């Protein structure tokens, strides 16, 4: 269901949708764990990701055994000595009970659909994050302090909500009708503490609609989005995450997660690929709001395909069709002497059938396919991605076999089908296909829309998860959801506001959100037990001090969903707001620590209430928060690439290795990241230049012989404990002896390094300096000096 409400503050009994801009929809943010209202008259074909707004109404679940286990574990953590044998036995028994209770809750969640009545206790579960709405009785709302906070939680007794009638002519025990206003009362608080919303302003002076819990509260509508129908385990529903396989060419319908690349393609993985790619995931959405009860029907229900990573919609390039229908294009098609114009988009071509026996299949809604003589020319249109859905992105699912036509039937989960588009202007039909034209230098192929129906272009629809029915996400899909949430948060809310942080209130708000997002992502990538943990800690866990392990699958998702790209773009704009760092001050990190002040306002400045005192405190606070955010971003990079040759090469290809190298010596931890990047990758070490080696040697002279600098020189000479003679010679030529033929300036600098940095260095007179460090081949003289 969708949670809808009306937005008139002083009229509690107004109806939602009676005027334009009077409707709000509850959206849950998995990163921050909070809910807010989004103003929109409708969610269908609005461009918003509907999966952020979908909730599932479930039965009241039990949490007694899980609460007893949590309480007992808390007691064990507080005692000084180790647990006794009796305590371990009791802990084992409590774990067994909690496990059985969790299994029972899962069975209750997957139970069939039934009617609910007023007075019943329910729970509202967010579809995307699988967490419940919880009302925290002892915590005030972030913005409206007189209300209680509403958060996303794994589930507890605070998640119990009682359904009460909004109007007095409804009584307890009456069946709840979808689309009517009702109250959601907190069972723990009771006394008419209902779900509420309030229009507030944030620290950055942004107006938002906060969802909280307050006395009296507001009325909400339960609007049906999708319901389980007959044989729901076999029927396709919305919004299901799917993948489209082209069996004839052994490829997946895919697209880049970058917002600048708008050409879908057919990705053909090689035989060594053993994991699924996040670029292949699409979400099928209905185009019309009246499909909630009927589901998706063959040839009748229009649907849209939203790309999971980029949030854009699959569409037909209508400009190609317009060019094909223009007189100039027709003349060019008839006259071979008319030169064709080149375009960056896929070109439209007209082909004459080679045989008169070929037929064209045309299909009307709800009718069987008809064969007609193919006297028309075959038209091809390009395939593209668009931001907003429209007629060019409305498609019909068509069965491959003619036996399935006739009476309207529901589309099954899985199976082969054709994707058909209906041109509203010319009444022509187009089918998704692939001619085998290569895209780029790899194995990918270009997609297009063809006016002739080829059975070879049938695609197999694989449903990754049917959340309406089973509520069971696969590990890949859940990890993709987390990475996609962070990517969208950085793109839409953090990065656009980092270009100007002159306002201290805006800077504090952006830095706080950025720090929270970076902490959450580091804990996620490192499989930390602190990731979205419900335990209460006396001190917040520090992501910079987290002991972590490598999760290769999650690392690959950060590259496929372009999360790494967004972090480097964010860092570039963020670093422009720190002029001291841009000047190359090597002691910037130490100065930032020395300038550290308390995050709270000093008592004397509060008493004085002077504006300049407040601004000074805020500027110092923002400076510390900027430092913290930069360190977290740098540490996040290491969590993304460590141990993955593919991502390390991806960083080098995009020039980001130089970005990390430029940050060395600024106190942000970039040196540790750079050493980790080079220490195990001999291919990247061989691409280092002399300037980088000299930079680290200067660090030793200025900042002292820290372990990081020595580890870097060790990694340069022997990455992954494999000696590289060329790099060994480079390090020695800069520390010990530059060579007789080196320029005077280089020899002078090397001699100074030898005298200042080395404790003992002995050069043998008349030694064969300049000869290759490697042993010469047996029976052959050493290589000449010019080749060394």
UniProtKB/TrEMBL annotation:
Residues 518-736 form the RIH domain. Residues 327-349 are annotated as: Disordered. GO terms for cellular component: membrane. GO terms for molecular function: calcium channel activity. Residues 24-220 form the Inositol 1,4,5-trisphosphate/ryanodine receptor domain. PANTHER family: INOSITOL 1,4,5-TRISPHOSPHATE RECEPTOR-LIKE PROTEIN A (PTHR13715:SF99), RYANODINE RECEPTOR AND IP3 RECEPTOR (PTHR13715). This is Uncharacterized protein.
């Amino acid at each position: 269901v969708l949670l809808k409400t009306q937005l008139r503050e002083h009229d509690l009994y107004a109806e939602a949708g009676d005027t334009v801009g009077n409707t709000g929809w509850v959206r849950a943010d998995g990163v921050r764990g909070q809910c807010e209202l989004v103003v929109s008259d409708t969610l269908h074909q609005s461009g918003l990701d509907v999966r952020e707004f979908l909730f599932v109404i479930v039965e009241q679940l039990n949490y007694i055994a899980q609460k007893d286990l949590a309480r007992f574990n808390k007691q064990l953590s507080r005692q000084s000595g180790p647990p006794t044998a009796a305590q371990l036995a009791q802990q084992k028994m409590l774990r067994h009970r909690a496990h059985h209770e969790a299994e029972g809750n899962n069975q209750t969640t997957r139970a069939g659909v039934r009617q609910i009545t007023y007075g019943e206790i329910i729970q509202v579960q967010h579809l995307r994050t699988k967490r419940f709405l919880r009302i925290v009785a002892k915590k005030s709302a972030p913005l409206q302090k007189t209300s209680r906070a509403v958060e996303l939680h794994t589930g507890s007794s605070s998640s119990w909500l009682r359904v009460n009638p909004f109007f007095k002519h409804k009584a307890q025990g009456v069946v709840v009708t979808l689309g009517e206003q009702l109250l959601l009362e907190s069972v723990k608080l009771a006394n008419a503490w209902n779900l509420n919303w309030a229009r507030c302003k944030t620290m950055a002076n942004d107006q938002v609609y906060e969802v909280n819990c307050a006395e009296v509260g507001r009325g909400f509508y339960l609007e049906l989005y999708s319901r389980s129908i007959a044989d729901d385990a076999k029927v396709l529903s919305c919004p299901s995450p799917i993948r489209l396989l082209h069996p004839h060419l052994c490829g997946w319908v895919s697209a880049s997660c970058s917002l600048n690349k708008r050409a879908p393609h057919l990705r053909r993985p090689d035989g060594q690929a053993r994991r699924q790619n996040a670029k292949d995931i699409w979400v099928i959405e209905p185009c019309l709001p009246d499909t909630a009860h009927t589901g998706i029907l063959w040839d009748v229900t229009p649907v849209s395909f939203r790309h999971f990573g980029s949030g854009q919609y699959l569409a037909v390039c209508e400009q190609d069709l317009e060019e094909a229908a223009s007189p100039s294009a027709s003349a060019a098609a008839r006259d071979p002497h008319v030169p064709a114009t080149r375009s960056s988009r896929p070109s439209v071509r007209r082909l004459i059938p080679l045989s008169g026996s070929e037929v064209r299949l045309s299909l009307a809604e709800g009718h069987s396919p008809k064969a007609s003589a193919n006297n028309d020319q075959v038209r091809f249109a390009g395939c593209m991605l668009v931001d907003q859905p429209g007629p060019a992105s409305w498609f019909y699912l068509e069965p491959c076999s003619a036996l399935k036509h006739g009476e309207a039937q529901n589309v099954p989960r899985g199976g082969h089908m054709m994707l058909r588009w209906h041109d509203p202007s010319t009444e022509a039909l187009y089918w998704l296909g692939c001619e085998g034209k290569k895209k780029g230098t790899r194995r990918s192929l270009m997609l297009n829309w063809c006016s002739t129906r080829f059975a070879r272009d049938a695609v197999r629809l694989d449903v990754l998860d049917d959340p309406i029915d089973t509520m069971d996400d696969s590990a890949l899909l859940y990890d993709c959801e987390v990475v996609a949430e962070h990517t969208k948060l950085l793109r839409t809310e953090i990065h656009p506001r980092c270009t100007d942080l002159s306002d201290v209130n805006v800077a504090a708000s952006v830095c706080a959100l950025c720090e929270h997002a970076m902490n959450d992502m580091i804990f996620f990538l490192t499989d930390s037990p602190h990731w979205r943990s419900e335990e209460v800690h006396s001190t917040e866990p520090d992501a910079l001090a987290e002991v972590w392990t490598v999760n290769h699958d999650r690392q690959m998702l950060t590259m496929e969903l372009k999360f790494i790209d967004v972090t480097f773009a964010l860092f570039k704009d963020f670093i422009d707001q720190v002029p001291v760092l841009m000047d190359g001050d090597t002691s910037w990190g130490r100065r930032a620590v020395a300038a550290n002040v308390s995050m709270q306002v000093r008592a004397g400045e509060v008493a004085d209430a002077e504006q300049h005192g407040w601004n000074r405190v805020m500027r110092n606070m923002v400076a510390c928060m900027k430092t913290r955010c930069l360190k977290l971003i740098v540490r996040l990079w290491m969590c993304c690439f460590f141990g993955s040759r593919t991502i390390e090469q991806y960083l080098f290809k995009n020039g980001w290795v130089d970005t990390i190298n430029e940050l060395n010596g600024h106190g942000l931890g970039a040196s540790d990241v750079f050493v980790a990047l080079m220490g195990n990758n001999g291919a990247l070490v061989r691409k280092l230049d002399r300037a980088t080696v000299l930079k680290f040697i200067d660090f030793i002279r200025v900042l002292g012989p820290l372990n990081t600098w020595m580890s870097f020189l060790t990694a340069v000479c022997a990455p992954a404990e494999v000696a590289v003679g060329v790099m060994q010679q480079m390090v020695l030529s800069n520390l010990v002896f530059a060579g007789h033929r080196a320029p005077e300036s280089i020899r002078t600098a090397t001699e100074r390094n030898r005298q200042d940095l080395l404790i003992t260095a002995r050069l043998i007179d008349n030694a064969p300096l300049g000869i290759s460090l490697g042993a010469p081949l047996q029976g052959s003289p050493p290589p000449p000096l010019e080749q060394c």
